[in-house]
Design brief:
Layout lengths: L2 E4 L6 E4 L3 E2 L9 E4 L4 E7 L8 E4 L4 E4 L2 H4 L4 E6 L8 E7 L3 E4 L9 E3 L5 E3 L6 E4 L2 E2 L11 E4 L4 E5 L5
Length: 166
């Protein structure tokens, strides 16, 4: 279980990433370090988020399942829910480090990833023209959208418009 440590006050917070509440326990947008060398953000879900789904983070720190439709035409920050979060509930999403995420079946290992029409799932197929930069899969062969795959995102991920040069 990944935990977070908040170092901006004299008290160090140790909190599991699966902690969620119907009322905010922290200011939304709070970013903390995780014990896997990554970072997590406290957010509010705009719709129900499933465990390991990729989410897009709005400017007001609300999240929704990442899809090609909501990726848009400007760069947006991406994170991964390490537990399910109901609509309107507050919780933590992992920005970087070694989050677990959902990939579509037969997504190749250690390749660039793109958004899909499947909410919260990424793939190596470039049909979406929405590149999720800053993250790669690790050991994802034969993964599927119902299970999680270890991802590596050392600095955080963003979705960007991308025209396939092929």
């Amino acid at each position: 279980m990944t935990t977070i440590s908040h170092h901006t006050t004299p008290v160090i917070l140790q909190q599991a990433l699966d902690k969620k509440n119907s009322t905010a326990q922290w200011p939304v947008g709070t970013v903390v370090d995780t014990n896997d060398g990554g970072r997590a953000m406290y957010v509010q879900a705009m719709s129900a988020i499933s465990t390991y789904n990729a989410v897009v983070i709005a400017e007001d720190h609300r999240v929704s399942n990442l899809t090609t439709t909501n990726a848009g035409t400007i760069s947006k920050q991406v994170a991964w829910a390490q537990t399910s979060i109901a609509s309107s509930v507050f919780g933590w999403v992992q920005l970087s480090g070694r989050p677990i995420g959902k990939l579509l079946t037969d997504c190749q290992d250690r390749v660039i990833l793109f958004t899909t029409a499947t909410p919260g799932s990424l793939d190596d197929v470039t049909v979406s023209e929405c590149l999720v930069a800053g993250v790669v899969s690790k050991n994802s062969i034969a993964s599927n959208a119902s299970s999680g795959t270890l991802l590596v995102g050392p600095q955080g991920a963003f979705v960007h418009p991308h025209a396939n040069p092929a």
